[in-house]
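Q: Convert this sequence to structure tokens.
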Amino acid sequence: MTQPRIVSLIASATEIVCALGFEDQLVGRSHECDFPPTVKQLPVCTSPKFEVEGLSYEIDQRVKAILQESLSVYRVDAELLERLQPTHIITQSQCEVCAVSFKDVEQAVCQFTSSRPAIVSLEPNSLADIWTDLRRVGKALGADERAEQLIGSLQQRMLGISAKAQTAEIRPTVAYIEWIEPLMAGGNWMPELVGMAGGVNLFGEAGKHSPWMNWEELVAADPEVIFISPCGFDIRRTIEETYLLTGKPEWQGLKAVQANRVVVGDGNQYFNRPGPRLAESLEILAEIIHPRLFHFGHENKGWVQL
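A:
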């Protein structure tokens, strides 16, 4: 079998490819692929059509303006793809805002035909879908057995945490915030992870897209733990925007605030990447929700107390 030449156009897929042992076969990446750090040397095949700096509200408005025109949020460099001659291109069809979509890649591939790459499209809406995607990548690369071993290892780690979390006497209520302005709760696999970590998820449904919410709903629910981890933001950038929440008059009266249980997580590296590091994401949630039961050492790296 000829060695594959892989272009990954989504950060989580890059992590999957590397976890399956194919990092040396990666020949191109998206502008967001940054883990493992060694992939940063690869040619970048995509770019955003909007200014990514600024407040979450400004970014939200820019993205919505593009989508309202039925346009793609990202560009794919078809000429670079032609030069790279990939045998496989991995993309996704789950979210047009999160990463390059399947239709973007199809359009780019139509502009060149010489390498005729296989397009592998991932669609992770739930935890089960992530295992399916791992198998899909493994099958495409002729590594079915490696994929099953990776899935088994990740599931064993995560089920062990879940089993221990269920021994806790109290299950605190948790509000997972995926975007600050406007407010958005975590959906997809996040409600499942919160439950596995021993919490009661208040907003968002497993397997469904992250829902918009409003401040009044958060105040009325009065969660015992507030976890702020915007999609695509690291800890520093998130903290810069928390004043949008902490400055509200009702903030100081919330249970989570009074109990000092408001946390900022690295949404860019962990929770919003449906790949192998969801196991670490669960560890982070577990040590936040049940600090007496768990300590994995992620504090000040994957999360900080606000």
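The radius of gyration is 20 Å.
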